[in-house]
Amino acid sequence: MSYAEFNPVVKKVNLKADGKKEIVLEIGDSGLDGKLDTLAKMIGCTVQCAIESQVVSFNITLNAQTNEPVTTYKVDNKGIVSEVELEAEQLEANLGLPKEKVKTVEEKQEIELSVVDEFISSGLAPQFETEFAYDIPQVIKRKNDGETYMKIANELNISSGTIVELVDQYRAKAAPLAEKWKEWKDSQEEQIETPAEAKKEAKEGGLKPSASEEVSEEKIEESDDNTENGAA
User: Fold this and answer.
1) Which residues of the chain fall short of a pLDDT of 70?
2) Which of 221, 231, 207, 185 lies closest to 77, judged by CA?
């Protein structure tokens, strides 16, 4: 059985006159190294193909006047992401006032799938129980561990199309939190690296006397010379 795995870009989906569909994929220069012969053998054959986008698209809501996100997030020292309660909203809640209606616009953004799935695999992503009837983070982990959507869907007694749709919806919901978590994670790694680099530089610097130390040694030598000349 011939097999080839690669990461193409979907360029076109053409609807042909005979009702057939033509999908055009584009692969970079080295994307098919050592695989062209295998693909050539598949020409004219029926193949099984599963395509999954490597980016997650999601929408954020912006204040139409300030162009700032309506919802912002913060991360605690354990990596748990939570929504920031704006001061105005908190004051309205405390006073029992109706929430002010702000004109908003939607903006589409994208984030790498690997970042979202890493956030989910960390165990820090929320399940959104009120919006999803199934444990979607667990579904994603099982899929990334090699199980098929078909197998998981059969266990949950739903269609594979439904499980894929739920996974897409969950990833889009978790994406803005994953983005904030990734920023926090990167900053934590930088803080760990910086002291180590400073310690290394200090250690290396200790092998060579500083300029001030060299000047002090020169003054001591001059003083010793003057003392000897006076004694003479």
Assistant:
1) 86-100, 195-199, 202-232
2) 185
